[in-house]
Design brief:
The protein is an alpha+beta fold and about 700 residues long. Helix content is about 30%, strand content about 30%. Helix 1 packs parallel to helix 3, helix 2 (about 55-65) packs across helix 3 (about 65-75) and helix 16 (about 325-340) runs parallel beside helix 18 (about 375-395).
């Protein structure tokens, strides 16, 4: 077959999350972003489309401003096209249309101001596509975007139809949409350059006009082994050199230029989708593992054509898979309504920037990348959302102490939550889920003390517990992070455990006498009651200068031969403008027999401080430790918890002596480097043994106070 010419569109996406450690930005810049631009300067014939997310641009402007001048010079000579996108890299379908348009327009304004041209196309975060997107994108002035060939295969297209671009529309709003090649995504930079060039030559012989690689820039330097492979050993330069030597038939072109110069291949309507791996990750752990094994088997049997019909999950099901993601997302939507419900003072809507920062996609899902398991990113997201609420308060002229409350189905599960918001705290309670306190926000400094993460099954846990023939040690070899199972420390399989409930605050446990710290930490203990996640009745009444929330459950204990009736009542007293609140417990034996056991009030908090960080601490009696330590202390009535770096200090005073079990919340999670333990918070369990005659009660109070707020 006669060799024909081919265009190659290289669209490289560069991103760091809102709130990532500055040292990570610098590391990524040195190992990935700077080397690519230096090489482009050296190879002027290579033309590409580049995308930089807003958080990364913000860091570059502050720390490496001359880098933007170099990018502008490449753009001025037509070598680089700067792509747009949502400024803070949100999953566009997951945020309201007004925010989609606003974030895209903010990025477009930046590109116009800094690079002198309007971006015609956008990078779609995580290539998450839903069919109504063209309407929002058209309103934001977007002409084209890039998704995976997976999307097109699920729509029924065959291999030869995946080279070029198509038109799609929603309500008559037209969008050009390019498929990026999964082969190129997996081959570059891991296959030999000659193999990639042979593939492109074979594609050219088929008579198609354009092949596209749309992928992350971090794979060129940050993924395991790739810095040495791409830059020190020269894979990228060898690739660029090969492209230059074959310009008689192979031409690199920015995607915007191609879309203006060549017609579409046709019209297409794509289903909801993302890249292939994301569709696996969005499934429940067991189904995700099954799908991965099925794909592997079919590929091994040479049935590649069947794989195009295998979809997977739906990105929005991360909101089901992780209740913590769902609560964060619904908090974001609540803040959106508050921000857009305030008057526009003409200087920009109050809280809008903080809201948009809180929409950065990274903590709203999980796959090979850390996602929701990145506790610092998760905390930062909440901080921006809370700060948006603070800015709304300023516009509403809430200058004095206040408290508001409402019963509302925040998490959209058909059951109301009790939402208290005020000058000092936000306190969100779930009466239907143990009467638990699942969000405790400090307003100043803005911080969610309960942004914990429970340990739950993941597909890669099944691989670790029943390992394949080979597990790749950290740093061994150069391969895509989507291949193989890497581990970052030995003995991880023994660290895996799964929580049976969500680790938050104000959870009521009834335990056998003399529980052990090891059993509590690994969730290998028996609940002797039905209170921890049982439904409580909630009532809110006025209190002088505040309000009182009464939560009551008539449940059962199982210490004897049969369940015995038992009542738990807990009253939460909150005062306007006061940095403290009190929980008053009353445990009542409503059975006709004596009952003995151990009651435990759980307070799982997140003040960062993992990895042996001495800034995070707790103190009880004569004992103290880090937030990721483990301890058992008898007979305490006071507890101090804090993080010096955050400037947050909590104090608990109990009206009676109690035992304390303190231990870290840890999960075994996946990342680019492999499986590792990750710190997700600290659990404090306050235990009170009891023996109650029929009709007898045990009453005690816990007062929580915060110091240093607003300083």
């Amino acid at each position: 077959m006669t060799r024909k010419s081919l265009y190659l569109g290289l669209a490289i996406h560069n991103h760091q999350p809102v709130g990532n450690d500055p040292t990570i930005f610098a590391w990524a810049y040195d190992r990935s972003y700077l080397p690519l631009v230096e090489l482009l300067e050296k190879h002027p014939a290579i033309r590409v489309s580049l995308h930089y997310s807003g958080p990364l641009l913000d860091w570059i402007m502050e720390n490496r401003p001359l880098f933007l001048d170099r990018l502008a010079a490449l753009a001025d000579r037509g070598q680089v096209e700067i792509m747009g996108g949502g400024y803070y890299e949100p999953i566009l379908p997951s945020i309201p249309p007004a925010d989609r348009i606003g974030q895209i327009e903010k990025m477009s304004a930046f590109v116009r101001e800094r690079f002198g041209r309007q971006p015609s196309g956008i990078w779609l975060a995580e290539r998450v596509w839903e069919p109504d997107l063209p309407t929002s994108l058209a309103k934001a002035g977007v002409e084209w975007t890039v998704v995976d060939d997976t999307h097109f295969r699920l729509a029924g297209l065959e291999e030869k139809g995946l080279f070029g671009y198509y038109l799609t529309e929603d309500q008559g709003n037209i969008l050009k949409i390019f498929p990026t090649s999964k082969y190129l995504r997996y081959a570059i930079p891991w296959h030999e350059v000659t193999a990639v060039m042979d593939y492109l030559m074979d594609v050219a012989k088929e008579g198609v006009n354009l092949a596209v690689l749309g992928d992350d820039g971090e794979k060129f330097g940050l993924w395991p082994g790739t810095y040495a492979h791409c830059w020190e050993k020269g894979w990228v330069e060898d690739f660029f050199t090969a492209l230059e030597r074959n310009q008689d038939w192979l031409h690199t072109i920015p995607l915007g230029d191609y879309s203006r110069s060549y017609p579409p291949l046709g019209r297409v309507y794509l289903p909801t989708a993302s890249y292939d791996e994301m569709l696996e990750w969005a499934l429940p752990a067991g189904r995700s593992s099954q799908l991965a094994r099925l794909k592997h088997r079919l590929a091994g049997e040479g049935q590649a054509e069947v794989l195009g019909f295998l979809g997977g999950g739906f990105w929005r099901n991360f909101l089901v898979k992780y209740p913590e993601v769902n609560n964060m997302h619904k908090k974001m939507l609540r803040v959106h309504r508050q921000v857009y419900g305030t008057p526009d003072a003409g200087r920009g809507r109050a809280g809008i920037e903080e809201l948009w920062k809180g929409q950065c996609n990274c903590p709203y899902w999980h796959g090979v990348f850390g996602g929701i398991y990145l506790n610092g990113i998760r905390a930062e997201t909440y901080s921006h959302l809370i700060e948006a609420q603070n800015q709304v308060d300023v516009v509403l002229q809430r200058t004095g102490p206040y408290l508001t409350w409402e019963m509302s189905d925040l998490d959209c599960d058909g059951r109301d939550e009790l939402l208290i918001e005020g000058t000092i705290f936000n306190l969100y309670l779930a009466p239907a889920q143990g009467g638990s306190l699942f969000e405790w926000d400090l307003r100043r400094p803005p911080f969610n003390l309960t942004s914990t993460l429970s340990s739950r099954p993941e597909a890669y846990h099944q691989e670790l517990l029943a390992p394949p023939e080979e597990i790749v040690p950290e740093g061994d070899g150069v391969q895509t992070i989507h291949t193989g199972l890497r581990v970052k420390e030995p003995g991880l399989a023994k660290r895996i455990h799964f929580d049976t409930y969500r680790r938050v605050c104000l959870i009521d446990h009834f335990l056998k006498p003399n529980p052990t710290a090891a059993n509590l930490r690994s969730a290998k203990y028996e609940e002797m009651g039905d209170f921890a996640m049982g439904a409580y009745q909630a009532q809110v009444t006025g209190l002088t200068g505040g309000l009182c929330v009464t939560l009551v459950r008539d449940g059962h204990l199982t210490y004897g031969q049969k369940p015995t009736p038992f009542r738990v009542e807990k009253r939460l007293e909150v005062l306007e403008g006061q940095p403290r609140y009190t929980v008053r417990y009353e445990l009542t034996n409503t059975a006709q027999t004596r009952v003995s056991g151990a009651f435990a009030s759980e307070w799982s908090l997140h003040l960062l401080g993992g990895g042996g960080d001495p800034q995070g601490f707790w103190e009880a009696g004569a004992r103290h430790g880090r937030l990721d330590s483990s301890s058992h202390v008898q007979n305490i009535d006071r507890l101090a918890i804090g993080n010096h770096r955050l400037g947050i200090h909590l104090f608990m005073r109990a009206s009676r002596n109690m035992a304390l079990f303190q231990f870290p919340l840890e999960a075994v999670s996946n990342s680019e480097g492999g499986l590792e333990r990750t710190f997700q918070g600290t659990c404090f369990m306050l235990l009170a043994p009891f023996t109650l005659e029929p009709g007898g009660s045990l009453a005690f109070a816990l007062e929580w106070e915060c110091s240093g707020l607003g300083e």
